[in-house]
């Protein structure tokens, strides 16, 4: 085995788009990957010093859209272009935007699944950013991305994962097993 210096190579990392409103009501979007589940109905995101962070300081509501192969180019764009420097960068993406019914944040309807969230607390807040713990208020999924059981079908979504080693995006693939079942074969 080869050894490497410590790096944040925790994989897979979902590619998420954080949707907020600027102070004048303009929709803003940011690409992020350092996020995860906090509890059964909460998420955690590591936030740096971004326009999104400024927006979240003024309004604790936001949305999380999960990037797909179809939204990859525009999703990468909102990660490499700062909302502090480019006003209304969402307009350049071509995404359709509507106001959430559950939180005061934009929903980008080009994505198959969106979580509508509200910050519950900030951790280690400093000039360089903070961690947020947010409650999931609602989850929206387009009908064409539902499985026969009426729940989201991740295989249909073509979701992306961030490759922190080679700085790329990978498409999440097919189902290969059954959680909480396949391991019982070894009992």
Automatic annotation (TrEMBL):
Cofactor: FMN
GO MF annotation terms: FMN binding; oxidoreductase activity, acting on the CH-NH group of donors, NAD or NADP as acceptor
Top-level taxon of the source organism: Bacteria
Keyword annotations of the record: Flavoprotein
Keyword Flavoprotein: yes
Family recorded in the similarity comment: Belongs to the flavoredoxin family.
PANTHER family named among the record's database cross-references: FLAVOREDOXIN, FLAVOREDOXIN-RELATED-RELATED
Name assigned to this protein: Flavin oxidoreductase
Species in which this protein is naturally found: Hallella mizrahii
């Amino acid at each position: 085995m080869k050894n490497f210096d410590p790096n944040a190579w925790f994989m897979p990392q979902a590619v998420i788009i954080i949707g907020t409103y600027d102070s004048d009501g303009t929709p803003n979007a940011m690409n992020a990957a350092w996020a995860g589940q906090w509890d059964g109905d909460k998420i955690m995101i590591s936030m740096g010093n971004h326009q999104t962070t400024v927006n979240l300081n003024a309004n604790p509501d936001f949305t999380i859209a999960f990037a797909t192969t179809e939204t990859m180019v525009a999703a990468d764009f909102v990660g490499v272009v700062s909302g502090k420097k480019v006003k209304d960068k969402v307009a350049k993406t071509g995404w359709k935007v509507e106001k959430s019914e559950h939180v005061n944040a934009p929903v980008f309807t080009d994505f198959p699944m969106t979580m509508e969230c509200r910050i519950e607390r900030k951790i280690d807040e400093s000039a360089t950013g903070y961690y947020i713990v947010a409650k999931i208020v609602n989850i929206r999924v387009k009908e064409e991305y539902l499985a026969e059981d009426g729940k989201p079908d991740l295989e249909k979504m073509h979701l992306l994962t961030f490759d922190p080693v080679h700085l790329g995006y990978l498409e999440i693939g097919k189902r290969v097993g059954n959680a909480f079942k396949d391991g019982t074969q070894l009992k």
